[in-house]
Amino acid sequence: MAELIFVRHGQSTWNLERRVQGQSHEPPLTDLGRRQASAAADFVRTLGAQAIFSSDQVRAAQTAEIIGERCQVAVRHDQRLREHDHGELTGMLSSAAMAAWSADPHAASDPDAPYDPDLVHGRTGESPRQVADRFARFAADVRGHDGRIVVVSHGTLIQTALAVIAGEDLARMTWHAIANGDVINAAGEVIHRSEADVAVRR
After folding, report:
1. Residue of 17, 83, 145, 192 marked active site
2. 2-201 in CATH: which number?
């Protein structure tokens, strides 16, 4: 039976600029992002990955390419591993997107209310439940694989995937601290964090 290991892509140019990336294909990895991907690749190589699947968005695909080359495993791209589509918020500075989200009457809700998994982000984007559903379809397709499968994807997709695997109610899902370049097991534990990222945070 497959054992899923997740890798969040390395830092992208839009991570650095603090922009909402969503399903934009444009932002590539920064130099730091490539170092984070390389550090993740060195660790993943020790795990003996049998397969590598990746989002086809540039920042994830570049990360997966580095991991695949290091592990000598071909990368398979899957659109179901793309980031949560934030619709009209995509490309905005995170601060501006949060202000727009708060001012949107369609998104307004009691701050103490549970997270709404059926709320579409950015009006033209998708809901958390839609993200969960497409990951669940991917997981069903790879369930029959043997050994470790590395999934290179994005922060919110990975958060949602972990909730799906744990069988959590999406309205009260657990939020994990996942940094760029982190390697995470299916229980949501960070099993490797790039020293490059740690150095920047100090």
Report:
1. 83
2. 3.40.50.1240
